[in-house]
């Protein structure tokens, strides 16, 4: 009897030890600094058309990134109401060459084999930014189907700017479409996260969603102002994506990468970032701090922007990651070209400042600029590796 008791006690201790070890590993993972890279649809297109073939080109990208300490990829999975995988809801992305390989699964597998997280990056509302002509869309585009069927009631699901086409953030069918797309990714692919960037309302023009807003006003006794209503529409989607992700798995994260300017987010893009942070709508916030230390307008200097974002996330259950602008290396564009042309340590100094302020991580925009063969880019990368 004593022997049985001893065995039971040993088993319990082993199980407790395993549980403790798993908890320790999980804690280590949550505390590690995220070092990420965005992979854009243009870069996916380049991999697709590479003489190496997509798989080998992506494998090469992963090996390069891993050598610089990268531990997370944020990959454009749905850029224009399309998909880089076989989807029930969206047309296949036209910038990817047809392949018998499921490239999304392939990329995830390659990343995980190399210890790199894979976050599926989607643009929830954007359909086209090159044209407002519906006939340029694929036949199986949800937008084209809504606009060309016999039901005029669903035409309001689509909104236009002078050169763009967008899903209407106010309409429930559009929200459902976005959420169905998120569920599809979660169900079929072993992603580590769902990620969206700063494409919310593309304009402040009152005509953009006039029909939907008038319908709203006419059916509510105390309607919100247009600005308040638009912010509510976006926040509703953000919260719903979060809930969709967590319903599938508590271990998968959801976050947003808004513009650096908090006021612009709120007043022009209708993105209530502080509301999301305080309301538990996201796991992390990743502002696009695409500025150097010598920007002519001081409020946009990197260190000043960083201070603002640290302040609004302090004490909140949200991780702060920062988007860094490797694409600006060697830029010839005003107003900050002098700094980016003449300094080779900007990104390294930014990373050092993030570490000093205990920021949870950073992500470079984007892969092709970080690993460019230009001499200045190489110097910036060498300095980054030393940090």
Question: Could you characterize what this model shows?
Answer:
- With 387 residues, the chain is of the alpha/beta class.
- It has one domain (33-124, 174-386): TIM Barrel, CATH 3.20.20.80.
- It is 46% helix and 13% strand.
- It has 15 helices and eleven strands.
- It has helices at 2-31, 41-49, 54-67, 103-113, 142-148, 172-188, 210-218, 226-248, 262-267, 273-279, 302-313, 337-342, 346-356, 367-370, 375-386, and strands at 34-39, 72-78, 117-122, 126-128, 158-161, 164-167, 193-196, 253-256, 284-285, 319-324, 361-364.
- The strands form two sheets. The chain has an eight-stranded parallel barrel, surrounded by five helices. A three-stranded antiparallel beta sheet has the order 4-6-5, with helices on one face.
- Strand 5 and strand 6 (164-167) form a beta hairpin.
- The longest helix is centred in the N-terminal third of the chain and has 30 residues, at 2-31.
- The N and C termini lie far apart (59 Å).
- The model is unreliable at 1-27 (pLDDT under 50).
- CATH homologous superfamily caption: Glycosidases
| CATH architecture assignment | Alpha-Beta Barrel
Strand content: 5-15%
Total beta strand runs: 11
CATH domain topology: TIM Barrel
Unreliable stretches covering 5 or more consecutive residues: 1-27
Strand order of the largest sheet: 1-2-3-7-8-9-10-11
The span between the termini is 59 Å
Summing up helix and strand content along with how strands pair, one would put the structural category as alpha/beta
State the major sheet: 8 strands, parallel, barrel
Total helices: the number is 15
For this structure, what is the CATH class?
Alpha Beta
Helix content: 40-55%
Q: How big is the Rg?
A: 23 Å
Provide the domain count. 1
């Amino acid at each position: 009897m004593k022997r049985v008791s001893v065995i039971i006690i040993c088993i319990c201790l082993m199980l407790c030890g395993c549980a403790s070890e798993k908890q320790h590993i999980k804690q280590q993972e949550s505390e590690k600094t995220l070092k990420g890279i965005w992979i854009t649809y243009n870069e996916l297109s380049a991999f697709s058309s590479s003489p190496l073939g997509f798989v080998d080109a992506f494998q090469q990208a992963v090996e390069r990134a891993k050598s610089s300490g990268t531990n997370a990829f944020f990959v454009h999975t749905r850029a224009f109401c399309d998909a880089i995988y076989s989807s029930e809801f969206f047309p296949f992305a036209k910038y990817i060459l047809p392949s018998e390989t499921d490239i999304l699964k392939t990329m995830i597998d390659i990343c995980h084999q190399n210890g790199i997280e894979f976050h599926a990056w989607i643009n929830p509302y954007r359909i086209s930014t090159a044209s407002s002509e519906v006939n340029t869309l694929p036949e199986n585009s949800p937008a084209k189907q809504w606009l060309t069927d016999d039901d005029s009631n669903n035409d309001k699901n689509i909104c236009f700017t002078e050169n763009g086409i967008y899903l209407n953030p106010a309409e429930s069918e559009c929200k459902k479409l976005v959420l169905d797309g998120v569920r599809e990714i979660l169900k079929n692919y072993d992603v580590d996260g769902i990620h969206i960037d700063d494409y919310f309302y593309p304009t402040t023009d009152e005509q953009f969603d006039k029909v939907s807003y008038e319908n709203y006003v006419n059916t509510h006794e105390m309607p919100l102002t247009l600005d308040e209503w638009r912010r509510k529409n976006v926040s509703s989607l953000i919260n719903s994506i979060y809930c969709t992700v967590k319903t599938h798995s508590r271990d998968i994260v959801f976050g947003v990468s808004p513009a650096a300017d908090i006021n612009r987010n709120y007043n022009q893009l209708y993105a209530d970032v502080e509301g999301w942070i305080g309301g538990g709508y996201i796991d992390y916030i990743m502002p696009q701090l695409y500025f150097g230390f010598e920007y002519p307008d001081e409020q946009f200097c990197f260190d000043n922007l960083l201070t603002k974002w640290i302040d609004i996330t302090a004490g909140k259950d949200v991780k702060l990651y920062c988007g860094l602008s490797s694409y600006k290396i060697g830029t010839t564009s005003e107003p900050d070209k002098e700094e980016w042309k003449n300094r080779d340590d900007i990104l390294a100094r930014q990373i050092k400042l993030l570490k000093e302020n205990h920021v949870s991580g950073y992500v470079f925009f984007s892969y092709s600029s970080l690993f460019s063969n230009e001499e200045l880019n190489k110097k910036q990368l060498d300095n980054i590796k030393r940090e």
